[in-house]
Amino acid sequence: MALDLPELERVAHALEEAHVLLESDRKRLEEQPRASALADTVAGSPAQTLRGVRDLSEEMAKSRQQVALAAGYSVLGFDHRAEHTLNMARKYLVSFPSGADRMARPLGEATVRALELIRDLGFFSAEVSVAIDVALAAPQATYPPADWDAWMRERMQRGER
Helices in 76-137 by DSSP H: which ranges? Predict the structure, then answer.
């Protein structure tokens, strides 16, 4: 069964727009002199904020590539590969939106717009949308935690692994 190519085109363009937005915040943050201290491991620090936006951007680029590959497979008639690749693109994203957990608040305007765009896209699981809402509502950076034991207990209480 061939994939819905106009829908894939819509998704790919949204992923590209989110990637461009995140890259603009990444470039802005890289220009800040303190952001180059990559050894800093405090949540919300310049280094963690830069790492977070890089993670978000890389995840969008990866998803966009997978959507484009799925469209290509579909056009070529490799339907099984197209569906598998599209399923991989829809998988829960490792660093999206969790990269925002590293970032100082308030989040950059472009980052907020990118997160909202992906949340409203309807392409990823509902879990991604909920995680984006949590990231947008967080009053401060939460990762890496100051107390790893408390962080692990909290995750276990929420049923996360």
Answer: 79-90, 109-121, 126-137
